[in-house]
What we know:
Elements: E1 2-3, E2 10-11, H1 14-19, H2 21-30, H3 36-39, E3 49-54, H4 58-69, E4 74-80, H5 83-93, E5 97-101, H6 109-118, E6 124-129, H7 134-143, E7 147-150, H8 155-166, H9 174-199, H10 203-213, H11 218-225, H12 229-243, H13 248-257
Parallel strand pairs: 3-4, 3-5, 5-6, 6-7
Antiparallel strand pairs: 1-2
Amino acid sequence: MVSLGRGTCEYPSVGVLESGARDAYDAAVMAGRARPKDRKASGAADNDIRVVIADDHRSFGEALQIALDNEDDLTVIEVVTDGESAVESAQVKHPDVLLMDVQMPGVDGLEATRRIHREATGTKVILLSGHDDDVVLARAVEAGARGFMRKTQAVSDLADAIRRASRGEPLHAVSEVEMSLARFRMQRRTDGDLAQRVERLTPRELEILQRVAAGEASVDIANELGMSRHTLRTHIQNVLTKLGVHSKTDAVVAAIRFGKVKTSEKLPQTDDNAS
């Protein structure tokens, strides 16, 4: 629990707000913390940082609004529940900072951020994510966000991040961003290479992987396909070599990932000369 605003009321972290947002919202009101529209009825002060929250869980967005509005220099002017509305809000209301959930239906947080950045609305975007890894940070920066905050962080940390973003300050060290981007781009190149390798598998090799994915034993696969176990092992070794992986499991995962093998189906049998 963290202390928000200038009072003594304690408030949960962003993660707690997400998991129990409606209870947190009701508790804030019951505790006598006025709704934002009541506390700041005359509107945001001229020097207030104007914030929009975009999250597909409205109760979470409203609870976070209550929490952030307890900060004297922050005013949440709108809560929206999808990426399209977030883009529209940036275009029409020109908030200083927009808190954007990464995962939303329709236009997701990353695409909405790209559009806001591309249209140069002046709004700084902070992406909210339940994950903390290079991929999230790199994708956030590539989309044009100031950075991202984990949903498990304290609301007070989020408020500080909003202030830094509004001043145009980075949320992450340059070295951290550069390292994350480098790892992400290397992974993307590796993924592209693996996709090409999967495309080079023959119909017979894919059928074998399909049967492996279905849980069939090697002896049964060999019998079903009319080949010796030695020939089957040769096929599997060829697959591992083509994909550059070290086990049948890795090969199956790669084929599933790129849509060549399905977990609930078997491919039709192919002729022996298809290999």
